[in-house]
């Protein structure tokens, strides 16, 4: 008896998903995602505003893109990530369909349907692609796991929502989640 073959998905399969389906294409597999919770969306909006306001106040060159915004880490369309928040400082990477290359900073807000991808698959993908900083926010545990991939020792560090968390891509941007009311 033959074992069933695992299907290899392409970007065409990904773009032919029914309208409104949330998914990512990673390692030739389509990973479906549930719609985010209200608190997930609240936090995403507050963080996007905070980071965008920080950049604007300094006339910065970076741009902030909330989901859904396609990120093609390798610069081509064989994998499609859709981070909750992407901060991109190289305008040449930004095309009409998304980001073609590694954003400088990616933030994922954990949902039950994405936890294993966010914690186990994406860190290595993001590091290899050249993402400088990766944050994983867990609303249920009130923790933020931070990877600074440019550091010699890029082991993750976990913070609570009460901690002041310094970004690496900006020398003076510190975020404390306790004031977000979530």
In summary, what is this structure?
A hairpin with an 8-residue loop joins strand 10 and strand 11. The protein has three helices and 13 strands.
Notes on the protein architecture:
By secondary structure, this protein is α+β, with helices and mostly antiparallel strands. The chain has a single domain (36-180), classed as tt1808, chain A. The chain is 22% helix and 27% strand. The protein has a 6-stranded mixed beta sheet with strand order 3-5-8-9-10-11, sandwiched between helices. Strands 4-7-6 form a 3-stranded mixed beta sheet, with no helix packed on it. Strand 12 (165-166) and strand 13 (174-175) form a beta hairpin. The protein is globular, with a radius of gyration of 17 Å. It starts with 10 loop residues before the first helix and ends in a 7-residue tail after the last strand. The mean pLDDT is 93.
Structural descriptors:
alpha+beta, 182 residues, three-stranded mixed beta sheet, 27% strand, six-stranded mixed beta sheet, tt1808, chain A
């Amino acid at each position: 008896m033959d074992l069933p073959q695992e299907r290899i998905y392409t970007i065409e399969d990904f773009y032919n998903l029914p309208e409104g389906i949330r998914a990512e294409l990673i390692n030739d597999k389509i990973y479906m995602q549930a719609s985010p919770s209200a608190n997930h969306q609240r936090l995403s909006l507050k963080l996007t505003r905070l980071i965008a306001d920080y950049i604007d106040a300094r006339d910065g060159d970076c741009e902030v893109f909330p989901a859904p915004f396609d990120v093609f880490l390798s610069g081509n369309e064989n994998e499609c990530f859709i981070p909750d928040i992407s901060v991109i400082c190289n305008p040449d990477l930004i095309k009409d369909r998304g980001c073609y290359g590694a954003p400088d900073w990616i933030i994922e807000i954990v949902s039950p349907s994405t936890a294993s991808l966010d914690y186990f698959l994406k860190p290595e993908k993001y590091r290899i692609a050249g993402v400088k900083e990766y944050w994983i926010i867990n609303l249920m545990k009130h923790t933020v796991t931070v990877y600074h991939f440019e550091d010699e020792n890029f082991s993750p560090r976990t913070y609570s929502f009460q901690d002041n968390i310094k970004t690496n891509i900006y020398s003076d941007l510190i975020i404390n989640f306790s004031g977000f009311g979530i």
